[in-house]
Design brief:
Distance between the termini: 38 Å
Number of strands: 4
Largest sheet: 4 strands, antiparallel
Strand order of the largest sheet: 1-2-3-4
Shape: elongated
Number of helices: 2
Radius of gyration: 13 Å
Length: 74
């Protein structure tokens, strides 16, 4: 498993690449992503390249993260 960690907009994001199948017939990447400080909120991301999976995970976490929901409900 490959782990990619980076900081974006003040949040430390972790993307774990669970499967990466790249051959002439199949292009498939499976990963889970989460905030390093808030590991209970995880998302599953599927894509055809590692770069695309990281991009999708980053976008999804930063636009639909649980902190907004907690603040809005409060």
């Amino acid at each position: 498993m490959k782990k990619i960690q980076f900081v974006k907009d003040g949040y430390e994001i972790v993307v774990n690449i669970r499967r990466n199948i790249q051959n002439e017939t199949t292009k498939y990447v499976e990963a889970d992503a989460y905030y390093n400080d808030f590991g209970n909120y995880r998302i599953l991301v599927l894509g055809d390249t590692v770069e695309k999976v990281v991009e999708l995970a980053t976008h999804e976490l930063l636009t639909n993260h649980p902190f907004e929901k907690i603040i809005l409900d409060y």
